[in-house]
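Homework-ish question, so no full write-ups if that breaks the rules, but can someone show me the predicted structure for this set?
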Amino acid sequence: MTVLPRSVKAPASRFILPILGLVALALCVGGILVLIDHHGAENLLASIYGALGNSAGAQDLRNGQGDQIVAKLLLMVIALGVGVGGIWLLFLGVGGLVGTLRPTWRDRILPWVFVGPALILLATYLLYPGIATFARSFFDSKGALTLDNYAVMTGSDFVEILRNNVIWLIVAAGGSVILGLVIAGLFDRIRREALAKTFVFLPLAISLIGASVIWGFMYAWEPAEQPQIGLLNAAIVAAGGQAIPFFTTSPLNIMAEIVIMIWLQTGFAMVVLSAAIKGVSTEIIEAARLDGANERQLFLRVIVPAIRGSIVTVSTTIAIVTLKIFDIVYVTTGGRFGDDVVANRMFHEMFQFFDDGRASALATLLFLAVLPVMYINLRNFRRQQRDV
Amino acid sequence: MTAPATTIARKTTRVSPWRPPLLRSLPLRLAVFAICALWTIPTLGLLVTSVRNPELISTTGWWTALFNPFAANQWTLNNYSVVIASGGMGPAFLNSLIVTIPATVIPITIAAFAAYAFAWIPFRGRAILFTIVVGLLVVPIQMSLIPILKIYSGAGLYGTFVGIWLAHTGFGLPLAIFLLYNFISQLPRDLFESAAIDGASHLQSFIRIALPLSVPALGAFAIFQFLWVWNDLLVALVFLGPSNDLRVMPTALYALLGSRGGQWQLLTAGAFLTMALPLLVFIVLQRAFVRGILAGSVKS
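A: Not a homework solution, just the prediction itself:
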């Protein structure tokens, strides 16, 4: 292992490295200033143009015209330099400085250099806000202690929202897992398994909003006299039925939205469960077959129980994603047709009604719902640590 | 990574004896075909519509185009140029890159350093801190939005790229630390011990040993985080705000939905543009992604 050549180099590098470090630091600070300023890139490019003698171009840029695309590209270069280079500069610089300290101090400080940035970010972005949101949910807008933010949830519109979330949880999570399981079982027996799986798997790369547009077009509805351009309504009309406005018909719209989620998440369930199925020992399967089990019995009574653990993990993972569902509802209907859900309502409480108390109470509700999962995770983790 | 090799070997020995004969396997084949069609047709409809002539889109179903591929005026790329220029998808693409690349690299770097320390540097409070990380894995980001928005408006980070990088970093860190810890802590102890005997510092062991050996785990998480950030609508809506200049792909598509709601030729072209890069990344790096999913869910 050759780990040491750097420190044995010529003494000149002992001066060059710190100087380079300082230059890089200055560049990073300058870059962050440009990035935080809303017109930073335009102004910087304008100054460059000015220095090059292109004062007309500079003027255009300052007025919000001219080479905006060039400014955007410049911004991108700065962003990548600062974002990617800056973080490494931070670790290498501080780590190198700590390395020059006396061993006792070095050993005491170095771990915190490694975990420090992570801990600070976790505290700032998850721990503190979580506690603040929880606390905020017990205050009204004037700062008085109250339970009103929770009391309103017994009103009929909130009860409907909670009901919808439960429907989402059961149908979307359950549907994805069951479909994923069935598909994993079916595809396990075909020759071009990898290819077939790719088809089901591919939607995982698609955003919820992209999938909502895809399915919005599938569900598209036109008045009766006009030709139906949505595949589903065209099929219904061809079969002699009446076209259905899927997104505005309650409670059908909830199911229509859930289908989008299932379409996206089934691939995830399929991949994990398929790997688990392949892990079931061949002996057990052969033994069951010798005992005269048919394929269905084999699947339901032998394979499914054997992969129970994976089924539980997949179910909880998808359940958590489903619980927080926002994009699909926000994009397709905005939750205006009896299909509202907690996360969407929370967004509207924040940005439409500016009621932080209620929004916080809704967020806390989501948190309480995932609490059992957190408990199970921690218990499993503890057990794992003890076994090691 | 020996797992794929063993599953392939087992599959060939297991499948051959009990694959049903052709006639009996017909229902199975039909079912598989139907499933694949069900998962492909919606996307196909989007893709076909995005390159069709707008006048035809509103009068005939997209599937008719497949039966008349050579009809005059059937196809056009004009929808894309409209959506890139006046629909704002061009600048949004650049913005998405500006947001996504640092928001992927920063958390991986920070998490890798942290995971190494949690795995190989003994320090006081290590166990309890890592337990907190595991606990934070499932906390909904909704719990964070309001207080962070307050901090951001005070600190001038609202509507800035730095602000959204840090937000995505904070939200992605628990999973990143957890996945990388699972991987880095499994590396052989001898490697680090002999490096320490050779006089390597922890910084050197990390950079020269832990990082190169963790490339599979780093890559898997990178794909995760890239897809998550690129496809994210909520965090972008909350922290970048409604400004035109700062629209990323999902928020630009959302704006398109609002302003051109009925114009399917533009919506489909815009939606396909938002999906193009993630689909490409996904298809090319599918194996690494699957590995990441399995490491993340089976182990926990």
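Now go work out the reasoning yourself. Hint: Residues 1-17 of chain B have pLDDT under 50 and may be disordered.
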